Amino acid sequence: MTTDWMKDLPQAAEAYLEGRRLDEVECIIGDLPGIARGKAVPATKFARQPYFHLPDSIFFQTITGDWGEAAGEDGFIERDMILRPDMSTATAAPWTGDWTLQVIHDAYDRDNDPIPFSPRNVLKRVVQMYRDKGWEPVVAPEMEFYLVARNTDPAKEIQPMMGRSGRPAAARQAYSMTAVDEFGPVIDDIYDFAEAMGMEIDGITQEGGAGQLEINLRHGDPVKLADEVFYFKRLIREAALRHDCFATFMAKPIADEPGSAMHVHHSVMDRSKKQNLFVGPQGGETDMFFHFIGGLQRHLPAAIAVLAPYVNSYRRYVREQAAPINLSWGRDNRTTGIRVPISSPEARRVENRLAGMDCNPYLGIAASLACGYLGMTQEIRPDKQQRGDAYNGEPDIPQVMGQALDLFDESDDLRHMLGGEFCRVYSIVKRLEYEEYLQVISPWEREHLLLNV
């Protein structure tokens, strides 16, 4: 089957379909949590339609499936959005039983304006603000996740998966090749799926948790990299299910084990000169470099509600558990929330270690870039560099979801960057999720309070 739209497919998608008949196209868009929503349509129908419709209410839905009162003054009437494919994102869905492509779509209203609370549009908005200044933001995400035993009973604790040896995955085996080999069949499928989809993995390592892995992606355009993280979450889950285990991107799935982060490395290029703005003429660190760090320090507290979007997210920020507890910055210091890795001057970058792997990649990258942009435009100087163990300092980030949302709602600067309508909808949905959580009584409360208070 060959049609005009297929002539513009990315090379990997063309290679995947070579000599084969395309059966189906998955038309998808990421909602607030980053779940793929959309429709699966026959390839012949996709070739005939330039767009399709979904109700805007998909962005008002909580992670539990409830609905936030986010529709605004017109009420909950579920207007149809126009979803148009971005064919540069067309890629294989290699875990399906037939020959299927998946394509990410962008959301517009009837006036052809971007839907302001669509996460991909939020990131595009922030990137455009950089470009309006003559800057080009560059990011490189790191994805941490756990492979765990199948868990079909939410009342039971999550357990590590069984490895190739027949023993449960062991903790405290960071960077162990033997530990990576334990998950060999799953990792092989991850590589195979990624290759079929045309996505390059920079490396896979064993992290400190039992069954915890990290995948690094090569640096590049923020929207493209967010698309890849969005796709990778689907890919990794499907690879795990093939081998009778689950992949989870929860920030803290197992008690007493490290949490899972989405560390984001940032640099900013001069669009005309193609030079890293963090590097001076003699290779030194520029004012913009320090201003970017200062922006993260000042504005990240308000952005934590986006980087840590669930009550579970805050269980990750624990002293001595491989996650930051404050916004100190340092060079080659993994105890700080903001780290400057060792690099050549040309590769100088700033790493934000606050974001959890449970955040929406579009929103997490958008919020982080927004904080750095505000630092550069407001010329914010950072605090003094942290030269020792940052865990010896005091926490200075929100500790609970409610506090984080209060700071988010109070930040006019962040609202300007991300868009007021997005911030309104996001806050309503997240506060409803928080209220739903507060109605659940935990085993800890029953164990320690039932007969003792």
From TrEMBL:
Sorted alphabetically, the keyword list is: Ligase, Magnesium
A biological process term (GO) from this entry: glutamine biosynthetic process
Q: Where is each GS catalytic domain found?
A: 119-453
Superkingdom:
Bacteria
For activity, the cofactor(s) needed are: Mg(2+)
Output the Pfam families linked to this UniProt entry.
Answer: Gln-synt_C
Q: Is the keyword Magnesium assigned to this protein?
A: yes
InterPro entries cross-referenced by the UniProt entry? Gln_synt_N_sf, Gln_synth/guanido_kin_cat_dom, Gln_synth_cat_dom, Gln_synth_gly_rich_site
GO MF entries: glutamine synthetase activity
* SMART domains, alphabetized: Gln-synt_C
Q: PANTHER family from the entry?
A: GAMMA-GLUTAMYLPUTRESCINE SYNTHETASE, GS CATALYTIC DOMAIN-CONTAINING PROTEIN
- What family does the Swiss-Prot or TrEMBL record give for this protein? Belongs to the glutamine synthetase family.
The protein depicted here goes by the name Glutamine synthetase
User: What is the source species?
Assistant: Pseudodonghicola xiamenensis
Q: What is the lineage of its organism?
A: Bacteria, Pseudomonadati, Pseudomonadota, Alphaproteobacteria, Rhodobacterales
